[in-house]
Amino acid sequence: MHAPIPADWREANRAMWDERVPIHTGSDFYDLDSFRAGKDSLRAFELAEVGDVTGRTLLHLQCHIGLDTLSWARHGAAQVVGLDFSEPAVETARSLARDLGLPPDRAAFVAADVHDAAEAVPDSSYDIVYTGVGALNWLPDMDRWAETAASLVAPGGFLYLAEFHPLTDCLDDATGTRIVHDYFSHDAWVDETPGTYADFDAPTVHNRSVEWQHPVGSVVSALAAAGLRIEFLHEHDASLFARFPALERQSDGCYRFPADRPRIPLMYSIKATRPERLP
């Protein structure tokens, strides 16, 4: 159902995520044993679009348990910092960093609200500010998020985000062919589904969550208004999971519609740079 923004949206979401951290750490979905053994959690298109991170500093906003953050360190980033509002998630990320032999000066994790990132992280700016998939839908205000994220990009650096395309949330779950929700809705979406994407059958208590849908145009406009220059907006015909029953798993591990069906964007990515100096 659609509803106005509940006053306790942040607390409800934090309770939901805190409860799911131990479920995720023990799940086949995250497969932490394989990750510790060297499995990369980043997607091929992210690695190609971000490029070489060797020797660069990287801040990962809304990092959850830190797999993507630590993967960037494995790819050569000089320092990675992950931030998440869930303390259990941050503790898990710190434990994983220790397991990988990464000291705090190479991989640090901070528990804080994303809007407080500028005050919470150890440095004032980073070569790369990164936001991985499934992050923006938990925030009500793209302008406020973009101002915070952009303020942490060093001159000459860039912000990179990869996200699920909001169009997918407008379509019916059964077929993905009918538009059943308003693409431009600004209302909060309140859900009370138990379990989690990593284990649909997991018994859970804190099931109430609050999410928002952000049209791609609002994200791009917010980043531009925050002073960043949009280098590209790419739309992708693949998803990371079977969002609709018709999606088929491909050899690269992503899910796409069959070749005989018209394609739609299932994900998108943006790179936005901060000029070395103002004109």
From TrEMBL:
Its EC number is 2.1.1.-. Residues 59-157 form the Methyltransferase domain. GO terms for molecular function: methyltransferase activity. SUPFAM superfamilies: S-adenosyl-L-methionine-dependent methyltransferases. Pfam families: Methyltransf_25. GO terms for biological process: methylation. Keywords: Methyltransferase, Transferase. This is Class I SAM-dependent methyltransferase. It comes from Streptomyces laculatispora.
